[in-house]
Amino acid sequence: MYLGLDLGTSGLRAILVDDEGNVQGEAEAAFDLAHPHPGWSEQDPAAWIAACETAVGSLRDRCPKAFGALRGIGLSGHMHGATLLDADDAVLRPCILWNDTRSTTEAAALDATPGIREITGNIVFPGFTAPKLAWVRNNEPAVFDRVAKVLLPKDYLRLWLTGEHISDMSDSAGTAWLDVGARAWSDKALEAGGMRRAQMPDLVEGSAPGGELRPALREAWGLDHPVVVAGGAGDNAAAACGSGCLGEGTGFVSLGTSGVLMAGRDSYCPDPASAVHSFCHAVPGRWYQMGVILAATDSLNWLARNLRESPADLANSLPASAQAPSPLMFLPYLSGERTPHNDTRIRGAFVGLDVAMDRTDLTRAVMEGVAFALRDSLEALRGTGARFDTLLATGGGARSRFWLTTLANVLDLPLSLPRGSELGAAMGAASLARAAATGADPDSIMRPPEAAEVIEPHPEARGAYEAAYQRYRALYPALANAG
Length: 483
Known about the structure:
About 35% of the residues lie in helices and about 20% in strands.
């Protein structure tokens, strides 16, 4: 049996799977975020440990026999967080999370440092880890002076599980301290951020062993044999492992709180200027690239909140299939945008509002606007040489048939819906655990799921959606200049 632990922004999910990838049990535990100032997003790392204890305890109670056969643990977690530890591994301050924007000035300064984009393969975004430490140095110098180790969120959970300071390549690629092509810490990037290599964890591949479960936890959990903890992965790399998206021609589109369009790559092909993320994959010799939009289902949540309705009711007000684009256009820049604009100041808009329009028109426009934003990411990824024949569709927004057919039409690509398979980051983490514990080839474990259905774009609507996308693209410069 193999345990996948996915540390999310608002909770931890645990799944227990067997050698064939069949889920034997699952559990979840929630925790809170803190926003002490505008633009700040923090979390107490102790909450992650408590959530893990709760979830594991639940699994042990529900399926004791299966849990007793545990041989490996895989970790997935939200990327870019800064968990600061002193020389005794005590937490120095709350973890600064991926969606914290306080370090905009520091990010711009690091991004302008000669050679940094070439080393890291990416723009230095405010959400990355390195500018967070630069902010701490500038604003909390007493804390900065005591930093002995910086761990990403899932790796703090690993420290509790194993006692080891270890990270994997995929998660570390989002720090702006890693040479992403060489898959190693960069002394030049560390120096630019005022950091030392000694403050970094050791690095392993995500499918390799990354420590063993501590004897005290083995005893507490009723296990009388060694349990390997895999290197693991950042959440999107783990999700790619869970859906078999490893190499060239594979990819997925995720309609979650944010939106992600991911491409597996067999080689390193960065293009920082496009605001495409280029990161190490969780398996050796592979990379992945992502276009990221900041508000996907969050755009629908925003509309629902302001209309005082539920997102599900708004989605259910639409037909099952999108046949043509709406005359109303929505730009989903509710809190800025990443790919392809890298613009923290841009804000959203409705364009073309008419007195006859109602909640259904607004909902339709929001879904189309998110699809157009993801088309921007698709074009940016194609500019790096990424190719797609079909995309796996995942995330909460994929429950809406209207949204899926809209997305297929806007991207002009078939969308594959998996048949009853457990996907996502927790499954990817469990697959990495299996690879680490058995030494099996990741390609033999992490295969794309069988499709229950493939949603094809409507050929007769191609021209109309293409014209609508071109109108959408033309609105960004006007909106940026208006601000």
